Amino acid sequence: MTALVHTRAELQPFLDGFANGKRGVVMTMGALHEGHLELFKQARHDCDLVVATIFVNPLQFGPNEDFDRYPRTLDDDLKLCAEAGVDVVYAPAVEEVYPGGQPIVKVTPGPMGETLEGAFRPGFFTGVLTIVNKLLNLTDPDKAFFGQKDAQQLALVRRMVLDLNMPVEIIGVPTVRDEDGLAKSSRNRYLSSEERATALTLSRALFAGQEKATEGADAVRDAANAVLERTTATGELTVDYLALVDPRDFSEVPPAFTGQAVLAVAARAGTTRLIDNLPLTLTPHGAR
Ligand code: PAF
Fold first, then answer.
1. 33: domain range?
2. How far, in Å, from the CA of 28 to the mean position of ligand 1?
3. Whose CA is nearest to atom 7 of ligand 1?
């Protein structure tokens, strides 16, 4: 049985019940899918108490973004949480999370939050880090689980926890994909079947790039761009960025770079904006 609570006061007895156990939190905006299931599964494996939060955070949506139309599917979400063995769903009201109205004090991400997603969605990561910080305070977990699909978000959350000495362990969980490669996302449900076919270009571009990891950064970018260009040429896909970055700061890697990198892409199919990424290891040119 999964309990549903809406206030911090209602959540407290669950937290008290596991004061000496491991408490885990999975933060979500609802519209749950198999990617979230993987997060719940990992949390269930690692923790005695699993709390899922469902909160569509207004602070991380820009004025022209999809806050109003973001899917809100609480009944289905609760069923999925029950199947996944989540103990408690905490779905607070905006007034509980932002008791002072629009917050004056926020968590700002610094330069790592100004590239890629941060460049295309000004203020996005301030909204994300502020809510993650708040939800960590409200749920007081030992571990918090985040998807690697939002690689820049995950890196910034890790950095916030380090920089602000926050007593929580951050766990990254691998991206879940449909059989044909499309990364699971709450926003996939906006896609028509034609747009979904177009959206597949994102993962195809990333896998094409990954295959060139032994040939250097430029070869990776070229291979990925070649796949994207076929779909952008017809106007079906609008690419915001394709970037090969250093996961330590999300800056573009130079051509001779070797080591861990992230190949990241963001693009719009119709009016739906999607992101995806793959981690890869760039080996010295010619090395195996
Ligand atoms: O990844 C998400 O769904 C959101 O950015 C998060 C972490 C729940 C914060 O609102």
1. 3-173
2. 5
3. 27
